[in-house]
Specification:
four-stranded antiparallel β-sheet, 24% helix, alpha+beta, Jelly Rolls
């Protein structure tokens, strides 16, 4: 997905609400210039700014990008999609060897979000702080041992084990080993 396409969608959403660049930038706490560059497809927004922006428009990143999700391959009674890396759409510290793939379209904010989390050696997501989702997150470690850190506690999920994180629980995902980690995350509704 090209940044110019994402920028066009963000501009379309802003114009649908009849808000100015200044209004929106002020509401989400970024500069008007940064928002203008993002709408022109010339700059990426930090993940938290992009999440705040789509929340202001009462949608999600997944719903915005799903409007032009690559055409699925089909068979009688089935569809197959290719994943889209959400980390490619945002600015910020690069997370080596990591990705957060949206595995299937989430065309409405109330659609569940299926994600594949890949963590390279000795990295964490998010790079700073914690994520706190308004919905429960369920998952399974497919490859490697995933460490889920919460303030004052941690949960080690080994290959083949499933896990659940309550709605509102601050957490982050960490790979403390040299081998890469893969996990599937399912959020009850689109959050990214």
């Amino acid at each position: 997905m090209q940044l110019s396409w994402l920028g066009q969608q963000l501009r379309r959403l802003r114009e649908q609400h009849e808000w100015s660049l200044s209004d929106v930038a002020h509401r989400i706490g970024i500069s008007k210039a940064l928002l203008a560059l993002a709408e022109q497809g010339r700059r990426r927004l930090p993940l938290e700014a992009l999440r705040a922006l789509v929340a202001l428009y009462n949608t999600s990143i997944a719903a915005v990008v799903s409007t032009s999700y690559p055409e699925p391959r089909t068979a009688h009674g089935g569809l197959c999609w290719r994943g889209l890396d959400l980390l490619d759409l945002v600015a910020g510290r690069t997370v080596r060897g990591s990705s957060l793939l949206l595995l299937r379209p989430a065309r409405r904010p109330d659609d569940p979000e299926w994600l594949e989390l890949r963590l390279g050696s000795a990295v964490q997501l998010p790079p700073e702080g914690y994520w706190e989702f308004p919905v429960q997150t369920d998952g399974v470690a497919i490859e490697g041992h995933l460490l889920i850190e919460m303030p004052g506690d941690e949960l080690l999920v080994r290959t083949g084990e499933s896990f659940s994180i309550q709605a509102g629980q601050p957490h982050r995902y960490r790979n403390y080993l040299r081998a890469p980690i893969r996990a599937i995350l399912v959020l009850q509704r689109a959050v990214f």
